[in-house]
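Recap from last week: sequence in, structure out.
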Amino acid sequence: MLDRQAHFRLAADAVTAALAGFPEVERVALIGSVARTLWREVPRFAPFKQLGVRIWHECKDVDLAVWLDDLRKLQMLNRARSRAVRRLYDETGVGVAHHQVEIFVLRASAGDYLGRLCTFGECPKGKRECLVPGCGRDAFLRQHVDFVFWRQTLDEDRIMLLYDRREGIVRRAADTPAEGRNDDAELE
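Predicted structure tokens:
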């Protein structure tokens, strides 16, 4: 699980570098479990769940918050994400699929959550996901049924700021050690 987190951090860096080339991108931050120190938990799958075995939290995808001041190039951002993870695989052998890099789009001026960057190559694609109200109102800006973006997700102690337009690349996620918290003392 620690290696998986490290691979996801490499993907976050690759996608951030690609997005930094767009003048519309104001900031990029790694959010979610890939940005934090991992913890041990009893997972939902057998046999660990039945036996109560605690393992490192499983990071399922890369979550990036991206602040934009213009939504007209979302299709190009989508392509940049895909090219970045393909290039990462070609250069390092680290495989992260484009749909495993979730991009949460925020309004640069106010920080409002607008939706997620769609992973489909066309908009609308004609899939069930495209039928959600508001999905595609801005081309390639996907909406999810009943999804609520929690503002505390962006608290400074929960994110890893990777890029700022004024400063450039602020840090590389891959340079942050993939450490885990040992919570075994809580069990005793």
